[in-house]
Model the fold of this input.
Amino acid sequence: MPALQVRRTRRRGLISLTPLIDVVFILLVFFMLASSFTDWRAIGLTAPTTGAAGGSVEGALLVEIRPDGLRFAGEFLPLDTVAERVGTRVARAPETTVLVRPTPGVDLQRTVTVLDRLVAVGTVNVSVIRDPAR
Done:
């Protein structure tokens, strides 16, 4: 009696790709909505080295950031006026160095705002100097 061969085929369970595509699509939409396409503007600063000889500050402009306002050329001025005056000077002499000195009590955001504004008016050489007493 011939042996009856039963062929057993193992059938794999089908996995539907539809839920996977749905998840990928939802992730794609999530990241598109959560992303920010803001143009980040970097302000290039060079940190001073300790004990290094300072560069020439002859002809440099000094903007002092105080808790009670900005001081430029010996007088307290609003930020727009300081930016306008610095922009005018830098337009005449593009190599002019602008020194920004925040005094104690000035927060970092205020300093960054002033730096950002000075760069926006065309200042290329900007240096942040610290209070020598600290």
Observations:
- The chain has three helices and five strands.
